[in-house]
Amino acid sequence: MTTPRIWLDGVAATALPLPDRGLDFGDGLFETLLLKQGEPLLVDYHWQRLEAGLLTLQFPDNTLKHARQCLSLACDALHELPWAALRLTITRGTAPRGYAPPAQAAPRVVISAAPLQQDRREPGSPAKVGWADIRWSAQPLLAGLKHANRLEQVLAAGEAQRRGLDEVVVLDQKGDVSSVSAGNLFIVEGDRLRTPALETCGVAGTRRRFVMERLAPALALHCEETHLSPADLERADEIFYCNSLRGLQSVGELGGRAFTHFPVCEALHQRYWELITC
Questions:
Q1: pTM of the model
Q2: For residues 130 and 163, is the Cβ–Cβ distance under 8 A?
Q3: How far apart are CA 19 and CA 91, in angstroms?
């Protein structure tokens, strides 16, 4: 498989029926999963976040069950791939025009998958990161969810690309550190990890949760959600970010500061793969 494969409600497809509220309004949710020989990693974390989003957006009760069935069908067709990136998107489906959701929605599950060439267990080279000009909007009701409205992330990723950076750190409306464009941030201070609290914006990543619940305790590291300022990052011992496809990624440069040693991130990365594939 060299081009992405697509399934619509569990059936191979090449087009999305229109109209669709996911396209019209971003009315939906999505999950990006890493597959190893057709097996989605940390899938329970993804289901739990998706379930929370479906409840917040008031999707029909049977939506999650339908999504599980669709994912199983897609994964059955991907066992020949050592590694694959899979996106599972749930939209509210079709409806009459207007913002108001239909009383009887028929959600759609759209899955796309593509092979990944690099062995995901290999650590990436330290990332070159800068400070973003854009700031995340504040909306506490949607904070933590991976909803389909990602235009701010598009702008942040475009900014990084234009500046020749691997990533950008994005602040919230108060000027506190929130995340990078496609991942959650952690800083290392001695034997302590700190990660931004997601009270008004940002995505509660599956790997962020795994670091907090499993990896930090495994290495006897204290981990806390807190407010972080740009100055906190600039004086940190180490910085790393994480997402479902990359895992843990060390930061080698932020603005004008270079980081050359990454003992905590390297230990976390090794433990991550020991636990995630056991």
A1: 0.96
A2: yes
A3: 11
